[in-house]
Amino acid sequence: MKPILFGLAGAMFFAVTFIINALMEAQGGHWVWSASLRYLFMIPFLLLIVVLRGNLLPLLHEMKKHKVKWLLWSFIGFGLFYAPLCFAAAYSPGWLIAGTWQFTIIAGTLLAPLFFLKIHISGQTVMHRQHIPIKALLFSTIILAGIALLQLDHLTNVTTFTLLLGLVPVLIAAFAYPLGNRKMMEVCEDRLDAYQRVLGMTIASLPLWLILSIYGFLTTGLPSNAQTYQSLIVAISSGVIATVLFFMATDMVRNNMSKLAAVEATQSLEVIFALIGEFFLLSIAFPSSIALIGLTMVIVGMAIHSFTSHSEQKIEKEKSAMHMNA
């Protein structure tokens, strides 16, 4: 029960990103500052965690060995993930972005062939290319249909061009996040823990955030005190608290695929938390019945996908091990 509660708490703190980004946009804050300030504020907190755990030097050593890969995959995994999400906040409400963001589940599934699975056989490690889990992908059509309903309902209130400005950046982010993070995990292998990797990627993505900050300063000036404070909340809530809670939850059940799937499925509730937060804090109009049906389909689809994909991964490992032993 504790891992599920941690997962739910993590989803709630993750949802703060979508709520605060919508709030900053409503108050006239520029998306450039919303994006860059979050990662600039995350560094001291993550640095403190890593230093207290005595893991800073190994991280710096790894980053020095693979400078280009760290810069590339951090730009993709963090830069092309968060900057587009902040840009989209100018054209879509936070709960809609949170719902569309769940497309990352499908994107992650489609990216599977780009990665390898480690299989330990008779004391040896064999690299096995992953396959797209077909059954999980079929269930993902529920998520896709839910997102389609959300966007079609949104289209009744905005122009097609505005809809695309709120949709396309989120889809780019949905592919960039799993691609950059998984590639970075391949580079690190098992030499770094999650906190080291997140700090390293934040540091490696600094050139982008500094460039965006300069652009923001030249075009809109410095961010307001309110936007600075709100970005700090996002950094602490989503960048630190939510990440730590989710890592703790998954670590508790890492050897039990069904429980791990249940913990991951809790992240689907980000959509509900974002909707509730915007409804009370920003007084947005409550979604239509069509949008609510779409949200329900996204949540149910995510839960089914999580359980199915873990089941297929377990079967694939067993089949590969049997094949190698034959």
TrEMBL record:
<feature type="transmembrane region" description="Helical">
    <location>
        <begin position="5"/>
        <end position="24"/>
    </location>
</feature>
<feature type="transmembrane region" description="Helical">
    <location>
        <begin position="158"/>
        <end position="177"/>
    </location>
</feature>
<feature type="transmembrane region" description="Helical">
    <location>
        <begin position="132"/>
        <end position="152"/>
    </location>
</feature>
<feature type="transmembrane region" description="Helical">
    <location>
        <begin position="36"/>
        <end position="58"/>
    </location>
</feature>
<dbReference type="InterPro" id="IPR032713">
    <property type="entry name" value="EmrE"/>
</dbReference>
<keyword id="KW-1133">Transmembrane helix</keyword>
<protein>
    <recommendedName>
        <fullName>Multidrug resistance efflux transporter family protein</fullName>
    </recommendedName>
</protein>
<keyword id="KW-0472">Membrane</keyword>
<feature type="transmembrane region" description="Helical">
    <location>
        <begin position="70"/>
        <end position="91"/>
    </location>
</feature>
<feature type="transmembrane region" description="Helical">
    <location>
        <begin position="198"/>
        <end position="217"/>
    </location>
</feature>
<keyword id="KW-0812">Transmembrane</keyword>
<feature type="transmembrane region" description="Helical">
    <location>
        <begin position="271"/>
        <end position="304"/>
    </location>
</feature>
<feature type="transmembrane region" description="Helical">
    <location>
        <begin position="229"/>
        <end position="250"/>
    </location>
</feature>
<feature type="transmembrane region" description="Helical">
    <location>
        <begin position="97"/>
        <end position="120"/>
    </location>
</feature>
<dbReference type="Pfam" id="PF13536">
    <property type="entry name" value="EmrE"/>
</dbReference>
